[in-house]
Specification:
The chain folds into 2 domains: about 5-120, no CATH class; about 130-250, 3-Layer(aba) Sandwich (Rossmann fold), CATH 3.40.50. About 50% of the residues lie in helices and about 10% in strands. The strands form 2 sheets. The protein has a 4-stranded parallel sheet, with helices on both faces. Strands 6-5-7-8 form a 4-stranded parallel sheet, sandwiched between helices. It is globular and about 50 Å long. Helix 7 (about 110-120) packs across helix 9 and helix 11 (about 185-200) packs across helix 12. The model is unreliable at about 240-250 and about 250-255 (pLDDT under 50). It has about 260 residues and is an alpha/beta fold.
């Protein structure tokens, strides 16, 4: 049995806590022992991405301390996993924690990556009878090289029809602080992504990253689109049974 320490990113903690619960549910279903270390905080990505490396280092140091004894760290966010795996070694280069950062990089995983590559499970017993399009989030695709893993899991969900949207690999426009610094450009990119998702006839758009889904949810609401967002973890957690209602699922933690 793999002992998993669940890392919950800020967007999940503050806006869509059900995604964290769903991730834990899926991991337990496939036989993992799941723990949540309450001392965890932000990974430091917002400060790092805007050039405040000095301010980001204490967060990285805390992260390493909190998860030091974890057998495997799993998170429902490719973006935050990228921060820890790819950028911690750069941020902590030349410090006494550099080697520890490199060691952590080998045992921290995005959820779909962990399920398919480590546990080697494609069918987690989920059921979600809807047409679903997958958005390739930038960090998951470009830094973690995750493209097939989320799709592999979705193809094994009962009743789910996976439809590919045009230009699925294009950025949705969120980009962290990019969305606040360059709002008009970010909005235009989001509109393009929303149009592509609508064009493929999907009922839901999913992704590995809650930040992308939060951005797209706002744009889809503004467009009064029937298309809804849902995190990959929430699809994988959904099973047929009394009380299950797909209509209640939303990737942002809000009903539509």
């Amino acid at each position: 049995m793999v002992r998993v320490s669940l890392f919950i990113p800020c967007f999940v903690d503050q806006f869509s806590p059900e995604v964290g619960l769903d991730a834990a549910s899926v991991l337990r279903r496939v036989g993992c022992k799941v723990e949540f270390l309450e001392e965890q905080t932000c990974c430091g990505q917002p400060a790092f991405n805007t050039g405040y490396w000095k301010e980001a280092r204490p967060l990285a140091e805390r992260f390493l301390k909190v998860f030091r004894s974890a057998e495997a760290v799993v998170s429902p966010s490719g973006s935050c996993v990228t921060m820890a795996r790819v950028f911690y070694p750069e941020l902590l280069a030349g410090t006494t924690l550099h080697q520890e950062a490199l060691q952590l990089a080998g045992r921290i995983y995005e959820l779909s990556e962990f399920l398919v590559r480590v546990v080697r499970v494609s069918d987690v017993g989920a059921s979600f009878p809807h047409r679903v399009a997958y958005h390739d989030a930038c960090h998951a695709l470009r830094e973690l090289q995750l493209k097939d893993e989320p799709r592999e899991l979705l193809r094994h969900v009962g009743g789910l029809q996976l439809v590919e949207m045009p230009h699925s690999e294009e950025c949705c426009g969120f980009g962290g602080t990019f969305a606040t610094k360059f709002g008009m450009i970010s909005g235009a990119m989001g509109e393009s992504k929303a149009e592509n998702a609508e064009a493929c006839g999907a009922e839901y758009v999913t992704s590995t990253d809650p930040s992308c889904l939060l951005h797209l949810d706002g744009i889809l609401r503004k467009r009064k689109s029937p298309l809804r967002t849902v995190h990959l973890a929430s699809i994988l957690a959904h099973t047929e049974g009394p009380g299950d209602r797909a209509e209640s699922i939303s990737g942002t933690g809000r009903s539509r």
